[in-house]
Amino acid sequence: MPEQSAFDRAIATHESGPHTRTGEFTDDWLIGHAVNGGVALAMAGSALAAELGGTGHPDPFVISAYYLAASSPGPVTVHTETVRTGRQVATGEVSLWQDGPEGEPVQKVRALATYGSLDSLPDDVRTAAEPPPMPGPEDCTKALDAPAEAIRGVNILHQLDLRIDPATAGWAVGRPSGRGQLRGWLRMPDGREPDPYLLLMAVDAMPPVAFDLGVTGWAPTVELTAHVRARPAPGWLQIVTSSRNLAGGFLEEDADVWDSTGRLVAQARQLARVPG
Amino acid sequence: MPEQSAFDRAIATHESGPHTRTGEFTDDWLIGHAVNGGVALAMAGSALAAELGGTGHPDPFVISAYYLAASSPGPVTVHTETVRTGRQVATGEVSLWQDGPEGEPVQKVRALATYGSLDSLPDDVRTAAEPPPMPGPEDCTKALDAPAEAIRGVNILHQLDLRIDPATAGWAVGRPSGRGQLRGWLRMPDGREPDPYLLLMAVDAMPPVAFDLGVTGWAPTVELTAHVRARPAPGWLQIVTSSRNLAGGFLEEDADVWDSTGRLVAQARQLARVPG
């Protein structure tokens, strides 16, 4: 049996009661003091797959997560619920809880999701956003090579091979483009290949697109919805994030993810709070 | 007291127990045999506002609805729950239920949403997608003037003053552009001005963008998430819907809504099933 990858360990949960599972967040996936929202989403999605496992609908098609409070390193209790099981899809709900300062349960994330079988979908691709022209991974900037002050406390970067198109990396040296777009490549350094759960992490793995708009500081996610549209092929993932609407203290951030065959495999949109 | 508008009557609910409200769907908002998903979303959002009313967070900022089964004309029972109340926002859950053929309760829609106060947001607009150049309402095609066979059973059109940019209306006469974009104008014929709930309906009021890709038949929504970004000004709403990914039997459909001052007031994305 192959050793479990770092990512699979990070999102693993184990049944601990009826519709209840437990997992653990570690320091490794922190951005500042909060566990990366994509990792929390992948844990929630994976736990809900276990809940819905008997329904014949194994894969997340769409998941909407509401981030109620920052997730911290430590144990996580996961509650799952089957909302409806249909012929083609099943819908469930999942919540992640951690102990608060007095030991009281605090809900960190609640999500709704619809699952189906990616392998049962017809293979037609009628339209698909093309991946943008950009340099290959070897000609992009490793996120870990960014100036130390730009990535201090961004522990998650040590878990990823994340590379940023230099044309969209000016913000790291004080020259944001103002266009509101970041482009990058992602793979796992331990060779863990993409699957739907890695996609759920990938849609929130890029630096905040607000950086490219000249906004500094992390932008906490209020809500994130991801569509998984196909099972990704092995290899690099290509990610483009963009925003068209930074206003009123919030911004919308879209993420598109292509696999190594150039197929659009995930689309996500989040509403994030802009640091004051 | 002014007479209640048709739209307000359609989405009204009344408290009938703890965290329980009742409403009624009528024939007026049908598309084929199903009540329009935007009307169901607006009813859910309005009911959840009542649940969260005491929290000081009156307006929907983001709502994600999962459509479990088609909503039908008849009574609706609405269950609401406060998930978390914070200083700046509150998050809640809402579900719409109707009786099934044997009188058993059937869940039709479940949604999560975060509310806040639109009026308390700072007025900064750092980026904003501009409305596209298109003819004014007077030079667009009234949806009700479409060929009879194209709008048979689309009762909702009689409740709206919906006008389609002729450049994106070719599908109505068998000539879809293949670009996957529709542009239109919306206002309520009885003068009911836009507010956040009308925006929740507006993001699902246009014909399916799949029509412009040459796909006929209605595309049932699996999930729809809407961001309300500002309180809309009185007057026409300008709506653009688009899709970049029709594949595997599903399509993503994005909707952007601008108010009469040209401000982007709502953004929405849905995952819909493509008619086989």
Could you characterize what this model shows?
Two copies of one chain form a homodimer. The first copy, chain A, has 276 residues and is mainly beta. In chain A, 12% of the residues lie in helices and 41% in strands. In chain A, strands 1-2-6-7-8-5-13-16-15-14-12-11-10 form a 13-stranded antiparallel beta sheet, covered by helices on one side. The model of chain A has no long low-confidence stretch (mean pLDDT 95). Chains A and B meet through strand 5, strand 8, strand 9, strand 13 and strand 14 of A and strand 5, strand 8, strand 12, strand 14 and strand 15 of B. Strand 9 of chain A pairs antiparallel with strand 14 of chain B.
What's the short story on this structure?
Two copies of one chain form a homodimer. Chain A has helices at residues 6-11, 37-51, 148-151, 196-202, and strands at 13-17, 20-25, 30-31, 34-35, 59-67, 74-85, 90-99, 105-116, 125-128, 141-142, 161-164, 181-187, 221-228, 237-247, 250-258, 264-273.
Question: Keywords for this structure?
Answer:
HotDog_dom_sf (chains A, B); mainly beta; Porin; two-stranded antiparallel sheet; globular; 276 residues; homodimer; 4 helices
Helix content of chain A: 10-25%
Could you state the CATH homologous superfamily of the largest domain in chain A? Acyl-CoA thioesterase, double hotdog domain
Task: Indicate the low-confidence ranges of chain A by residue numbers.
Answer: none
Oligomeric grouping of the chains: homodimer
Report the span from N to C terminus of chain A: 49 Å
Strand content of chain A: 35-45%
Q: What is the CATH third-level topology name of the largest domain in chain A?
A: Porin
- What value does the average pLDDT of chain A take? 95
- At the first level of CATH, the class of the largest domain in chain A is Mainly Beta
**Count of domains of chain A:** 2
Radius of gyration of chain A: 18 Å
Provide a count of the helices of chain A: 4
Shape label of chain A:
globular
Organism (chains A, B): Ornithinicoccus hortensis
Domain Acyl-CoA thioesterase-like C-terminal (chains A, B): 137-274
Region (Disordered) (chains A, B): 1-23
Domain Acyl-CoA thioesterase-like N-terminal HotDog (chains A, B): 26-116
